[in-house]
Structures are given as structure tokens and as C-alpha cells.
């Protein structure tokens, strides 16, 4: 399987997703939209992953690639292609499915517990810890199933079309290097300095075992996503 990945910032890349795809024998191409690369043709790949990116109100003047990317996401939804969004990518998918996307009450950064929704079809533990870096949130689209929630965000993700489409607000792909790059180069979400759900750099990086717990979760999520998309 060949997977297309859409990247929107040099400091918000695929991280461990790239390692997982390679280890499973999948080829992939990363399209750096923020660097002026055009979105791919949908027919040239078997699946599409939309990575994290900027927050806030965006338009085509700020992000000239955004119009083409939105069209690509709509085509993937209509074409029965496996589609996964993380952070900003999840918000674009929610928007394409007609759900409200808006600024949340508070920023949520660092490590926080996610409680799996009672009817969630995703094969993840009932509770798990994940890395967060967002203020923007989204509502549940029609015909979607909620994945789970955290204390600050009532919806941490959803699946749609029997698991072919997965949108995830939190980050299971995070590595120490990817998080350090984020902390070094990316401004935190608006209101992070006053949020009770925000952690400082020292707290985020103090326990490397947190990163070690993520790969099994990511493997379970991605494996189920591609199996569901293939109708297995």
C-alpha cells in the first residue's frame, strides 16, 4: 500500500507514523504543503493521512494550499479511500463532514488522560495517556462514532464510515524528538499560559516512559484503520 501524507509545518511531521508505515512494508510520500508543494492526486495513492498544523481561523490568503487540500479531503471521503487526520487534519475532516470546528474553552497541552467512549469501535484501552497540543476542537459529525474524551476536550476523535475514516485530536505518534521540535519552534496554542490543562516543557519531557507507551497504541489504531478500510 502506498500512503500519501500531508504536512503543514516543518515542525509537525509524521514522527512515529513514518516508522510504522516502513515497518509494515507500506511505502509513503510526504507532501510539504507549507513549503509550496501541491497536494497529490488522490488516484496516485491508496490512503491519505492529514497531519497536524496551524490553529485559528485560516483562509486561502494565509494558506494558499488550503483550498486544494480541502478539495482533496472531500474527494477522499467520496472515493472510499482510507483517510486519517491528526490534530489540524482531524479538524479539516470534521469540517468536511459538516461538523462545527471552533476554539475550545482552554488550551490543552502536554500529557493527559483519554477515556474511551462506551461505544467507541477503536481497539484502544478504556483509559490511556496521550500527548496534546491544541486549543481548537470539533463536534461529532453526523453518522460518526465518538472515540473518546479528555477532561478539557469532550471529543478526542471519531470514526466514520465503519472505520475507514479516523480523526484524532490527540497525538499517539509523538516521539521525544518530535515534541522537542514542537517546543523549540512552534508557539503554543492561544491561552496556553493560563490554561489549567497546560504543562510546561520540563513536565512534558520529564518522563521518557510516557513516549514508550505510545507505540503499541499507535500500532493498534493504524492496524485497525487499514484493516477496516480494506474490509477485512
From TrEMBL:
It comes from the Bacteria. It holds the Pfam family GATase. This is GMP synthase-like glutamine amidotransferase. GO terms for cellular component: cytosol. Transmembrane segments: none annotated. Residues 17-176 form the Glutamine amidotransferase domain. InterPro entries: ChyE-like, Class_I_gatase-like, GATASE. Keywords: Glutamine amidotransferase, Transferase. The keyword Transferase applies. GO terms for molecular function: transferase activity. The keyword NADP does not apply.
